[in-house]
Amino acid sequence: MGNLILCHDKHAMHPYEITRIHCRIFTMEELCYYLCNNLYLIDYTIMNEQICNWLEEEIGMKDLADQLRDVLRLRGSVEKFVLTILKASRIYRDPEMIRIQNVLEHLKNQKDIERQKYKGDNLLESGEIEEAILVYQEILNREKDESVDEKFYGKIYAGLGAAYGRLFLYQESARMYDRAYQICEDPQLLKPYLYASYKYMSLEEYHILLTKHEEYLEINAKMRQEMDDIRKNLQVEPNQQLVEKWKRRHRRSHT
Fold first, then answer.
1. H helices of 10-128, where?
2. Residues in the chain with pLDDT < 50?
3. Alpha carbon distance 44, 78 (integer Å)
4. pLDDT given for residue 5 in this prediction
């Protein structure tokens, strides 16, 4: 028999409002859903006496409220506060709790903008491409954050390059990788840039591009050799799945 997940049927008469996003919460499930879907944005504002009172008076979870008050009194971390709520809900199984704890540990002491990038990177890695693009674009559309260096923004463009590439929007992908390289000057960004350029350019345009820089010719030769090696190992033409696997291997180091 599979593990059962406890559901809470207590519905608050008066909602708890997350002031940061003006979200009104009526149940324990809604609170946990908010926390788990906003791990990258959670900060000290979630830690307050009001949420303790709400859990006790509206949801009937006095023991949890007292535990959270202890965290407040002892000046515990935001991570401990959030994990205390999630564990008490008994909604999440152990593997999911471990994942959540790992994410919170990684985000500890990071700036808001770094948390946002981490969110975009995770969405990209999990295949939620459109959502990752929105996160990256949101970072770039904001006023520039002087607390991070210029190369941080280069990595955002590299993330967009990878995301557009997975959607087969190769011209956009090449443009983003080119922008990332101009900022970071990381030679490893040239390979995905050339690959994306090859995918959308005509052969004549691509050959002209290769002649602009001597290093382009060398990188292109290496890419060709890698693809030839794949063909030889399989003794068949590589199918789309293998090509995508090859592309993913080279993207991971760029975000």
1. 28-37, 49-57, 62-73, 78-89, 94-107, 112-125
2. 1-6, 237-238
3. 6
4. 43
